[in-house]
Amino acid sequence: MKFSLLYRTPESAERTEVFDLAYDLSLDRAVRKTVSDQRRADYLLGVLSRPLTDRADIEYRQQLMRDFIENDGLLDELKTIFSRYDRVRSDWQQMRSGAYPQSGSVNRRALLEYTFASLKVTAMFPKTITSFFASFAEIIGKYEIKSECLTSIRDFCRSMLESERLSELERVSALFRYKSPADFEFSAMAELDTALRLTTADLCEITEIDDKPQNPLAKLFSRKKTGDAAVFPIESDEATVDDALYIASESLRRIDAALTSVTGGIYDTFSGLSGEIVFYDAALEMIGFLSESGIDWSFPKLLDADEDRFSLKTLRTFSLVTENKTGADIVPSDIELTRESDGIIIRGRSNMGKTTLLRGIGIAHIMAQAGLPVTAAEAEISIRGALYSHFSSAEEDFRAGDTAGRFEGEVQQIARIVDGVENHPHALILLNETFQTTSYAEGAEGIWQILDAMPIVKAKYIFVTRMNKLFDIIDRERVEILEMADGFKPEHM
After folding, report:
1. What whole-number distance in Å separates Cα of residue 221 and Cα of residue 230?
2. Residue 145: which of 62, 68, 60 has the closest Cα?
3. What is the pLDDT of residues 226-273, one digit of tens each?
4. pLDDT digits over 359-394, tens only?
5. Alpha carbon distance 136, 178 (integer Å)
6. CATH number for position 366
7. What is the mean pLDDT of the segment spanning 160-183?
8. Looking at the domain assignment, is residue 215 inside a domain?
9. What residues are paired with 315 via a beta bridge?
């Protein structure tokens, strides 16, 4: 079993790409403005760039985010304990490397000492991991948690602490933790090939002794043979003792390997959580920034993809926080895309907030499908199979003079988007001033042919434009038209 803070089922979590939306929507700047540490900001942006497409996975994150918001101190405690836990493996590996013999060739007695030293290191970690299970359960148990993630971790830890198998692992490990080979008598079963070469050696019995004899390996074995397996007495000559030391080393090495495998498997159950919790740490700082700035936020109601709509009440565009604006400075917008509409076309004069509104809608979808709140008082958002954007800086293109070349580049970018939406049903496409590098008449006709085909591939669009010619040819029964006027307020036409 493997736990994750980000994915309900890590091996099968469905994610999609947002295709450079972070830059087009100014989301990257907004995150870096609100998250003080660049490493955490980059991690948050990395997760945002892969929105989830399964409703259960998104709600999994929403629940955990709510637990952290409602339980002050929970995240900090888990950050500390997860960080310590993830250091266990590196500490383990470092200690094991210190047990290696310093020279390339060692005698059999030194090999036995090394093997036992490695086993002692391994034997320390079942108890260490068990102590973490107790700590996890204790920390989570202190808070009123409701998320599936944390309740599952708590319950798993409690069950492991009561597990007979874990107790047996701890009991076996305790044999070797503080002892040396001189503390035991070993009985081993050696399996040989036809040339009497050792193939495997397994420990049959290990007995702790109080009075250590001169030769703790001198216990006599009964002489018998089963197939290729041979058990033989250890004589007092040096060669035979040397062989016995080697057999003991091989037997202990196999126990070491078994303990390492079992302990490593148990350890992997919670490994990596110190990295994943960075997402929630950064998101909490971002939410705190929004609250201090007086910007409303809420967890959206998630709608299935087939609902194919969204509704945002008092939406404020998140990227405006980079301009040091507060909630009072940002005019809120109510915007809705119905299931019956193919898309929304937003028009208006320059500097009326068309692109700002487009960015706000796009960021809301990214945040929603990452399991985070959106900057609106109320929100209902259908899950999108993919999110695409094309942002054209039309005025700069006209000034540059190379309108033909830039138009060709835009056509290629739109063609790639069209190819993508064919493989991602229920995609949402955000277009800003597309095809305005050519004449308005040609651009309007070209973009409408593309928009008109979007329902065929189950895609919807939001298009910002100043091309008045477009409104003479569109099907107004299928398209929602918004006019930006009076300071960022959209008006339905």
Report:
1. 10
2. 68
3. 444 444 444 455 667 777 788 888 888 888 888 878 877 888 899 999
4. 999 999 999 999 999 999 999 999 999 999 998 754
5. 27
6. 3.40.50.300
7. 80
8. no
9. 333
Give, in order, the Cα–Cα distances in Å from 8 to each of 58, 64, 353: 9, 11, 38
Task: For CA atoms 260, 263, 264, 265, give the dihedral sign.
Answer: positive
CB count, 10 Å around CB of 243? 17
CA distance 319 to 32: 11
Q: Quick one: tokens of 196?
A: 């009497």
Can you spell out the DSSP letters for 449-486? HHHHHGGGGT-EEEEEE--GGGGGTS-TTTEEEEEEET
Phi, psi of 234 (to 5 degrees): -90, 115
Q: How many domains does the chain have?
A: 1
Main-chain dihedrals φ then ψ at residue 477, nearest 5 degrees: -75, -20
> Is residue 418 pLDDT above 80, yes or no?
yes
Q: How confident is the model at residue 222 (pLDDT cuts 50, 70, 90)?
A: very low
The pTM of this model reads 0.82
What is the span of the domain harbouring residue 445? 293-492
Q: Which two tokens stand for residue 374?
A: 């959106």
CB 27 within 8 A of CB 318: yes
Write down the pLDDT at residue 486: 62
Helices (H), 142-237: 148-161, 164-176
